[in-house]
Amino acid sequence: MLKVFVHYFPSHTLQQVLFDALLLFLVVLVAVISLASPSVPDWAVFVPSALVFALSMVGLNTAMGLYRPVMKRSHKQAFARVGLSLLVSIPVAYGISGLLPWAELAPHSFQLSVVLLLATLLLMRGLVNQRQASSLFSARVLILGTGRDAAQVYRDLTRPLQRSVNVVGFLRGGGDEKLEVDGRQVLPAQGLLEAVHAMKVNEVIVAVRERRGGVLPIRELLDCKLAGVRVVDLTSFFERVQGQVRLESLRASWLIYGDGFRQGLTRTFIKRVFDILVAALLLIVALPIMLVTCLLILVEDGAPIFYRQERVGLGGRVFRVIKFRSMRRDAEKDGKPRWASTNDDRVTRVGRVLRKMRIDELPQLFNVLVGDMSLVGPRPERPFFVDQLAREIPFYNVRHCVKPGVTGWAQVRYQYGASVDDAIEKLQYDLYYVKNHTLILDTLVLFETVRVVLTGEGAH
Predict the structure, then answer these.
(1) Cα separation of 196 and 224, whole Å?
(2) Which of 304, 312, 276 is nearest to 388 (CA)?
(3) For residue range 157-186, what is the model confidence (pLDDT) as tens digits?
(4) Contact 245, 435 (CB under 8 A)
(5) Per-residue pLDDT tens for 298-323?
(6) What does the alpha-carbon distance between residue 375 and residue 365 come to, in Å, rounded to a whole number?
(7) Where do transmembrane segments lie in this chain (predicted)?
């Protein structure tokens, strides 16, 4: 894992991105040379423009999720991602290639050549991503611990298509920790530093929750650190690998003294300007869809078209969110709040389509413009559920230190859920966002939202 702009990216993913950008850059240059012959191309013009084109195209497809490892071997999911990349990239590439200086060589033929080259690269990347991921510089990792946490760490490090490290084995952390890993991978009893040197370890992951009574070899962990070996605790590991801040390994002291959770006037101002500009643009683009939606709701179930509901926002302040009505008018006729579910029988036929495509969320752009919400942030919950969840889930109210969002990190990383357990899972993603939110992360979440909606990988 490499840290770029406070966000972690798998090293093999960065290698793929750089390789594809270099390949596209070189292929475009070859195409320029072949079309410019016998004249001599102006390298001072063509090299920078080819580099910008290659980086832009690869960057666009990175944001669309082409390089993000799939959670399971799904040909359908892989084809959907490649199809979306082709659908978005080809028109953009065709338009950009017509504006760059090289278009003067042979405008139409060169544009078609560039589009064909890009399409071939995307198809090849989609095919390669179905194979086991690997890294040229795989780290050798030793897991300290043999219990439940150690087993979870091992599963996360060896998930299909995400393998970019070499787990050399487990070392008992001391105490009476229960063995929940493959005993064949447990190293013989020895000192930590001795095992690190013998196995040529680059990183030690401390997967031991109990810290008292000399369970952890603190002195040897310090020696490893001083010897240049990376030492990672459970909280940092889950943040880096899963994009979560795990509740079970979270302590108030970590929230207080740890990095992140920076707000500040400058960050708030930039985020607000970004929200206003993008929300206004999206409203203009989505206006025809919103008008058709209004008509369909009226035809199926009559008025009202919109649904207003109290939600909890920044600092615990209650505001009224606005959405297209996707449920029957008598959905809560008894006045008792209920979790919405995936196959909720209160949802109308039009509502099911609206929810699947997230069209019902579009009116919330008005909430963004007036300042109640942001484009990206934790999804706002109803006061009734906030009170329940705050009693049952530690640190739940931390998510209210930023504005709620129309979409969020949890929405693009976790499937639709409607229970306390699902709220816990989503909170762990929300805490990651609150800790690390930047304009770059907001942009990535917006692109991920488009991908999730168009490929059907996520739900409402």
Answers:
(1) 8
(2) 312
(3) 887 545 567 899 999 876 677 888 888 999
(4) yes
(5) 988 888 899 898 999 999 999 999 99
(6) 8
(7) 17-37, 43-67, 79-103, 109-128, 276-299
- Residue 227 C-beta-side C-alpha neighbours within 13 Å: 18
- Helix axis angle for 148-157 and 234-242, nearest 10°, is 30
Distance set, CA 173 to CA 23, 179, 305, 312 (Å): 46, 11, 60, 43
> Strand, coil or helix: what is 205?
strand
Q: Give CA–CA dist 102/107, Å, rounded.
A: 8
The two tokens of residue 3 are: 């840290």
Place of tokens 């493959």: 182
Fold of 139-242: Rossmann fold (3.40.50)
pLDDT tens digits, 133-145: 555 557 889 999 8
Residues of the chain with CATH 3.40.50.720: 139-242
Torsion of CA 369, 375, 378, 379, to 10 degrees: 70
Rounded (5°) CA angle 278-281-283: 110
Q: What are the beta bridge partners of residue 166?
A: 140
Handedness of CA 294, 298, 303, 307 (dihedral sign): negative
Could you give the CA distance from residue 208 to residue 100 in angstroms, rounded to a whole number?
56
Contact 143, 170 (CB under 8 A): yes
Check: pTM over 0.90? Answer yes or no. Answer: no
